[in-house]
Design brief:
Elements (H helix, E strand, L loop, with lengths): L2 H4 L5 E6 L14 H10 L4 E5 L8 H7 L6 E3 L1 E3 L9 H9 L4 E3 L6 H5 L3 H5 L25 H12 L3 E3 L5 H14 L4 E3 L11 H9 L3 E5 L10 H11 L4 E4 L10 H14 L4 H15 L4
Parallel strand pairs: 1-2, 2-3, 4-5, 5-6, 6-7, 7-8, 8-9
Length: about 300
Amino acid sequence: MRFYDELLVGAIDLHCHVDLEFSAAEPKREPETQWLAKAEAMGLRGVVLKSHWWPTVTAVPLIRASTSSAVSVWSSVALNSCVGGPHPCVVEAAAALGGKVIFLPTWSARNDIERRGFSHRLRSVYQNFPRLENPGFVFTDERGDLLPLAKELLECCKAKDLTLGTGHVSWQESMALAKEAYGMGFKRLIVNHPLSDMIGAPLDALKRAAELGAFVETCWNQLAPGRMDPRELVAKLRTIGLPQVVASTDYFRPYSPNPPELFRMFLGMLHEGGLTREEIKQVASVNPARAMGLE
């Protein structure tokens, strides 16, 4: 096994979009039933399948039944309006069906709408998307204090042994969530892709979130062609604090390599940007396992 292949052994991808995320008109390079077998051969430990639309708790059992891969496949739900929004009952139901990760709203988040994020892209994918009720959920008040609903969601995730990702909410909301999570002893909060243009979190805020025990996600998208230089990204991750950084693919583009190949590529670029073998294991294997409550 070559050096860059070894980086993937034991890794966990916490943010992998399920096949047919948009529509049958934009299928991925390979469906899960094909790439999971390759992921096993490459040594991947597990993957969290995510959808912007539907809970993957129903898809995961079918995927598992269709492949003999030993890679762990965990399901999730994004609390967008199409599943009932950010309601504790949705979280409770996801847990009862075997879900492991809850994501706060993505295209239903006010921050996403105001910053022309994923909700804006969906307008070009689905003709009727502009007619869909999209309330723009927010989790802090005018003073920046966390709303009772956000506290209830944190409490529900803690009680149900779930991991909570911040989705596409603003970095200010994520900071309020990190402070509350720290106060209640909830250690499985992930700030999703905060270095993206859609979130735009400052490094000092992310460093503080890490100090409070939140995990800070870095995704392949940050190193996609034409974006950040690997050395620049690694410098940012060191400032945030590697003990709380988790690496993932945020995979969904149909032109991308399959998830394990994309993850291998991403980890290799992080190494070329300055992370050591041990540091890559920390952000790709050790920290994601902690974020999932695994050994």
